[in-house]
Amino acid sequence: MSTDRPMPSGDSLSANAVSRLLPLGLSQPAGPVVDLIERLTEPDGQDWLMHTLEHGAMRDAGSSAKACADGSATVEQLKQIKEHAKRSMGRAETRQEMLSATLAYFLIIGSAMVHHNELLTSQARDQVDQALVDLADVLPAPWAELLHQAAMVTTTRDGRGD
Amino acid sequence: MAQETRSRDVFPMTQRTWLGRAIVAGSEGLSEANHHIMEVYAHPLKVYYLGSSFRSLGEPDDVVQGFFADRLGREGFLGKWIESDRPLRYWLIVGFKHFLFERSRELKRGARAQALPEDVGAGAEGPENHFHREAALAIAGEAMRQAHDECERRGQGDHWNIFVRHYVDGMGYEAVGEEFGVTHRRAAVMARTASNRFRAALRELVSWRGAAADDVDAEIRSLLETIQL
Hints:
By secondary structure, chain A is mainly α. Chain A has one domain. Chain A has helices at about 15-20, 30-40, 45-55, 55-60, 65-70, 75-90, 95-115, 125-140, 145-150. The interface between A and B is large, with 46 and 54 residues.
């Protein structure tokens, strides 16, 4: 996958192109994923991540981050953790609870896609992909690779919109 | 969920932009900051100059370089920008106008006084609009350069190329995917990655000390308006 055609890196941009580019710089609409990205990019974001992976929603659901990352968690286990994370998002009373549940939810979605070729959500695929890519950009290894890979996976449910 | 709102007061003394950090980082950082400012703003300032009634003051390149040499070489010029809590482009155009007034006054005292207009640049909105438009183009170009470099550094050259095909060349993802041998969905995902790099670069370039997310959004919308005028 490549092209020989040289691609511009910023010189000679037309006004039309800049009109399309500038809106990309605007803040993303507020939501749990954007809030999670903000938390992860704060100065202590990495420490927060490690602590939350160890003590947050994933542990509460009886699983471990390692099992999600290395693929040792079964689809059934992932489904259970996902449902637990989803419920936690619905009844979260603090920002931390919401962030923790959102983190667990998308790591599980990514793990199921990469390791089991399963899409465990009824959200539109393009929206799932956007969330996975945006989170991959701010997460460290192995999560960045996992979520980025997940966004590229074609599952059997793609295109059905269910 | 108890959402925390980011406000101006969250990080009041923190330099959250690369430029702000470079300016306060000592001589090497200041040198980098100066180089960056000259790269991005030399052309917009030249466009302003050529459209203004100051244009008889000298060759555009000489005048703009003279401005940079005078102001960027002046201790505290960029430090005062940081303290101003406003976008850099406004700080520069105001500084440039002051510089031109100073130059014109100096020349009026000399032999070329008769060649200068009496109303040098006063109240001229046209050239300033042109400056802001050129600044928007230059800032977008610089953000593209930085995003491109970051994609290359991460081994995501094709992500970048697909992004350019879609947003710069205006091609749909179906056509882009065909060109790069990927599905349109995969092309969109790859472009999203590059788009995130561009967003991060652009927001950092237009930000200033104490700017909240809404302020940065407003600045980007303002740049967009100058393009669409």
